[in-house]
């Protein structure tokens, strides 16, 4: 039997245009999602999603109370630093679950049961979708007192939480992703803070069971196919796609109403596989051309 799992997502500001794609991908999955947000609750949410309205100020006050320290920041991206502490902060909401986790909205989840079967979870305390460091875009932790306060083992956790700047505490304490993937150690890169990944790696392996696997697609080019229970990129199946690099392009465009299967590339989301003909006559392409014209006008005609 699959252990009860819940994902905690604090999100503030206008919901992104790709929100519907995320919701579609989690609908019917064997986990729950808790949203804490100041955005208006969507008219339709799947049964495994629950929405709690909180203002940004209320959330910071709540964090301050639970962490017993002053928490105050303006940049919503700072929330990433608190991901390792979400199980501790929201413990009153997740007591019924065996695992809790964090997942980003710019993802689409595929076959959860296939990649995270009960046999794997039963022998895992922390699961990461990236092998070399804890993936901020998708991780799962066992819901117990030991795991939920592991973040406090970092000598820098209070410094991180009181700093307004996003210090990438949840992952590797700075932009060291390529270095770690190339085989460098934390000792070699010497980040300015002790990140949560370092804390996990320093724990006794007999006490803390880590499962770090490369199961996240993060494409920079090409096409990703998202089906009801499958994510495919380059003829390989992944647990999820994190399209952070796709949407970094000025031309990325998403549709509000989406259904399976759909396709993602640097131009956005498509209902049909984006052959050159489909792309040429798509709204995505027209948006990209329009945006490029505007960019060039501003470059050569200041004030345009």
What does this protein structure show overall?
The protein is α/β, with parallel strands linked by helices and 304 residues long. The chain folds into 2 domains: 5-215, Spore Coat Polysaccharide Biosynthesis Protein SpsA, Chain A; 217-300, no CATH class. The protein contains 12 helices and 15 strands. It has helices at 19-26, 56-67, 86-89, 112-115, 118-121, 145-148, 157-162, 177-181, 186-189, 196-202, 276-280, 283-300, and strands at residues 5-11, 32-37, 49-53, 99-103, 107-109, 126-128, 138-142, 210-212, 216-217, 224-227, 230-233, 236-238, 240-242, 262-265, 268-270. It is globular and about 55 Å long. The longest helix is centred in the C-terminal third of the chain and has 18 residues, at 283-300.
Largest pleated sheet: 7 strands, mixed
Query: What would you call the shape?
Result: globular
Number of helices: 12
Average residue-wise pLDDT: 93
Total count of strands = 15
Q: What proportion of the residues form beta strands (DSSP E)?
A: 15-25%
What CATH architecture label of the largest domain applies? Alpha-Beta Complex
Short overview:
By secondary structure, the protein is an alpha/beta fold.
Protein topology:
Layout: E1 5-11, H1 19-26, E2 32-37, E3 49-53, H2 56-67, H3 86-89, E4 99-103, E5 107-109, H4 112-115, H5 118-121, E6 126-128, E7 138-142, H6 145-148, H7 157-162, H8 177-181, H9 186-189, H10 196-202, E8 210-212, E9 216-217, E10 224-227, E11 230-233, E12 236-238, E13 240-242, E14 262-265, E15 268-270, H11 276-280, H12 283-300
Parallel strand pairs: 1-2, 1-4, 2-3, 6-8, 9-13
Antiparallel strand pairs: 4-7, 5-13, 6-7, 10-11, 10-14, 11-12, 14-15
């Amino acid at each position: 039997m699959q252990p009860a799992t819940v994902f905690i997502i604090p999100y503030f500001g206008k919901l992104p245009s790709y929100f519907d794609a995320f919701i579609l991908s989690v609908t019917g999955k064997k986990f729950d999602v808790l949203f804490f947000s100041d955005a208006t609750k969507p008219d339709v949410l799947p049964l495994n999603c629950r929405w709690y309205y909180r203002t940004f100020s209320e959330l910071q006050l709540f964090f301050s109370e639970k962490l017993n320290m002053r928490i105050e920041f303006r940049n919503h991206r700072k929330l990433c630093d608190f991901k390792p502490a979400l199980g501790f902060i929201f413990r009153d909401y997740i007591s019924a679950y065996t695992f809790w986790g964090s997942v980003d909205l710019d993802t689409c989840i595929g076959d959860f049961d296939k990649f995270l079967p009960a046999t794997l979870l039963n022998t895992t305390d922390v699961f990461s979708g990236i092998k070399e460091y804890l993936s901020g875009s998708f991780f799962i932790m066992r819901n117990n007192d030991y795991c939920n306060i592991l973040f406090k083992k970092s000598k820098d956790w209070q410094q991180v939480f009181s700093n307004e700047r996003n210090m990438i505490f949840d992952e590797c304490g700075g932009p060291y992703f390529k270095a770690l993937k190339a085989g460098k150690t934390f000792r070699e890169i010497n980040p300015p803070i002790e990140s949560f990944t370092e804390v996990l790696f320093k724990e006794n392996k007999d006490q803390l069971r880590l499962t770090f696997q490369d199961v996240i697609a993060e494409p920079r080019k090409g096409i990703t196919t998202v089906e009801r229970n499958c994510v495919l990129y380059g003829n390989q199946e992944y647990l999820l796609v994190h399209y952070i690099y796709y949407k970094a392009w000025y031309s990325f465009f998403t549709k509000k109403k989406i259904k399976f299967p759909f396709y993602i590339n640097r131009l956005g989301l498509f209902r049909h596989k984006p052959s050159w003909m489909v792309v040429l006559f798509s709204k995505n392409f027209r948006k990209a051309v329009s945006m490029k014209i505007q960019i060039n006008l501003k470059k050569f005609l200041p004030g345009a």
